Amino acid sequence: MAAAVSLPLLLAAFEPLLPNRLSQAAAANKSDKAKLETAALFFKAIKEEDLFIGERLFNKIRQELGSEQDSEIVAAQALLYARCQSLPQCLNLIRDSRLTEKPNLTSEALANLTLAAYLSKDKNLAMQFFQKLKKAAPKKSLTEHLAILTTIPYTVLDNEAEAKNLLKKMSNLSWGDNDETARILLTRLTASYQTLSSETAYRTIQEILKKKGSDSAILIICAENLRKQARYQEAIKLLDRLLSKRNNHWWGRELRARIYMDLYEAGPAAADCKELLKQAASPSDKKHVLGLMSRIYEHSSDYFNAYKTQSELLLIGAAKTTQTTEPAISRELARSSPKLLLQKGELAVKCLDRLDKKELVQIATDMEALLAYKPNNLPALYVLACTQRKLGLNSQALKNINLGLSSQPDYAPWYEERAKVWQGLGQKDQARRDLEKAKSLR
User: Fold this and answer.
1) Is the whole model's pTM more than 0.70, yes or no?
2) Which residues lie across from 10 on neighbouring strands?
3) Domain spans in the chain, listed from the N-terminal domain onward
4) Are 38 and 45 in contact (CB under 8 A)?
5) What residues contact residue 315 under an 8 Å CB cut-off, 6+ apart?
6) What is the CATH number of domain 1-157?
7) DSSP 3-state assignment of 277?
8) C-alpha triplet 23, 24, 29: angle, nearest 5°
9) Rounded to whole angstroms, what are the CA distances from 353 to 387, 391, 426?
10) Banded pLDDT at 102 (limits 50, 70, 90)
11) I need a surface site. Which of 63, 201, 332, 398 has the fewest CB within 10 A?
12) Using CA atoms in the order 348, 353, 355, 357, what is the torsion angle rounded to 10 degrees?
C-alpha cells in the first residue's frame, strides 16, 4: 500500500507515540500531500486531546485514506473519545463499526481498542480485543508496546499476581536512555499494586519530572500517582502548572476537581467543573461533568447543591423527550434514567427543608413514576413518603410507610419517618414508641 499513512499506537500512559515521520513512500507521492496534512492534523488532535478537531477530521480522514485503514482510524478515534471521557461515544463507535467481528485487525488497532475499552470500563470488550492482540502481536519477546498494553486487562480484572509478573518481565527489557515509557508505567502501576515502596515510586516521579516536566501527559500521570499516595497538594501544584499552559486541558482540570473532592474542598472542585461545562461539546459530556459535580457536593455534605446539580443533569435527558406534561416527563425519565431519578430523590430527602412546594411536588411525581415501573422499589417509596409528609399529606405518607415496613420491618428510617408523621397528626405517644423502636434498631 504505497500511499498508506502509518497510524500511531497510543499508549496506556495517556500519551500517544506519534510517528516521527510519515510513510516515505506516501510523502514521495505529491498527490497524497493533502491526505498527509489531514492525517498529521488528526494525529496532532489526538496528541493534544482536542476532541473538537479530532471529530471534525475523523470522517474526512476515513474518506481520504479508504477502507483499507478504516479500522485503524476508527480505533484511534475511539481512543480519543475515551481519553476525553466521552465514554458513550467511544463504545458506540466501536460497536457500530463492528470491530469485534473483523478478523484482520492490526496489532496497532487492537492495542488502541483494548485501551479504549479499558478506559470506557467495559471489561468484557477489553478482554476480547486483548485476546486478539496477543495472537496478532510478535511472540518472540515482549516489545515496549505489547508490554504496556498487556498489563491493562489484568489491571481491569484486578489480577495482581499477573500484573506483577508482567512488570517483572518489563523490568528485564532494554530501554533507551531517553525513553521514559517504562518508568512511567511502573510508576502508574506501583500506586495500584504496591510493587515498589511508595518512596521508590515518589523518587521515580521526581526523575520523570526533571526530564519531561513540561509534558502534559507526564504531568497528568505523576499527578495521578501523587493523588494515590495522598500527596494531594503536590498533585495540585503539577496540575496548576499544566493548566497555566493549557487552560482547556480536560483531564487535567477534571483530575484537579477530583483531588479537591478528596480534600472535601467543594468550592474549588465545583469551580473546575463549571469550567469543564464551558468546554463540554455534547450532552454526554455535560452529563458526565454534572454527575461529577453532584458527587463533589454530596461528598462535602452540601446536599442542596448536589440535588440542584442532579436536577440539572436530568434536564438534559428530559430535553430529548417529546412529552410536555410533568407526569409524562417523569414517566419517561423513570424508564430511561431510573437510577439518576432515584438519586435526585434521595438527595432531596437530605435537604427537604430547603425545597419549595413546587420542588416537593416534582419529587413526589418522580417517585410515583418510578413506582409505576417497579412497584417494589422501596427506596423510591421511602422518598415518596418523606416528601408527602413534608407536603402535609400525612395520611398518604402513613400508608406508604406502613407498606414499606411490611417489607422491611427492621429498617430504622421507616420508624423515624413514621414518628414524624405521628407528630404531625398529634399522636405523641405513637411517635415516642416509633422513635424508641428506631433507636433499638440502630
Assistant:
1) no
2) 16
3) 1-157
4) no
5) none
6) 1.25.40
7) helix
8) 100
9) 10, 11, 20
10) confident
11) 63
12) 120
